[in-house]
Amino acid sequence: MIVKFWGVRGSVPTPLDSHEIKAKIEWALKRASEHDFGDQGAVERYVDGLPQHIKGTYGGNTSCVQLQSGGTTIIFDAGSGIRALGKHLMDGMFGEGAGTGHLFLSHTHWDHIQGFPFFLPAYVPGNRIVIYSPHPDIQERIKAQQVPPYFPVSLEAMEADIEFVSLSEGETITIDELSISNIGLKHPGESFGYRVEKQGASFVYATDTALNNISGADLEKFVSFFSHAKVAVFDAQYTTREAAGKEDWGHSSPLTDIDMALQAEVRILVLFHHEPTHDDHTLYEKFEKARKYLESKRQDQTCTVVMAYEGLQLVL
After folding, report:
1. Engineering a disulfide at 308: which of 8, 102, 139, 203 sits with its beta carbon 3.0 to 4.6 angstroms away?
2. Could you tell me if 81 and 115 are in contact, meaning their C-beta atoms sit under 8 angstroms apart?
3. What is the rounded radius of gyration, in angstroms, for the C-alpha atoms of the chain?
């Protein structure tokens, strides 16, 4: 299984502005004087060695993660990142009208569905797009964002075969060689997380949830669902201070995520759903604090923390 991140932001798309790009260039140039750029390889090595928040960006698109298992395409959420994913998929079977995509939605807040009207494979006859959710009225919700005066193209005008599957909370289904289960999360309007298993390897996607102040049976339920995941994607929108002031907003912080990941013995924790007011430098600082906190807490465990960015790819 290969997991690739196409959108990692929360709440609203957050593109870079010219001032941020200028600051990155200045930062890199100031440190370039210490290096010998005698050949192109030296330039490339210097750029490759720059931190993520300088050589690139964590990204401005909202939630969309692809899990590819052989010829099986699983997509988690349809935020603005799904537009770029769709363009990528068009280079293969989806461009020929012979692709099948399985789209699992955590919930239907705008940042998790707003990219679907721009998902090119859904406009190609012959393609099959199956949308899954434990929300019983999922078809009506998706259809509603593509009615006038909100969008000029209706859901019915999309020429692919679009199907809707209503899941029960806690249900496990099988798609090819993949076993996929779900869990209800702590978020206004109700959100759901997913766990994918294949031949002993497991992936968890649990965004838009508050992982703080969980105890008793609820804690046991979450730890069991996340248990021994090879890769777990957790909501990390807020800093610890922000989370304390927004307890009912349904989001978490990196340190809370780490505590949960250690209890569940997660192997790789991916911090996800970045706050739109946090620029790349702020996200880098959040990641450094998270990394140091993990080092102080994990003892003999092998957990690793990663900050999600567009283009990040992990192999399970």
Report:
1. 8
2. yes
3. 20
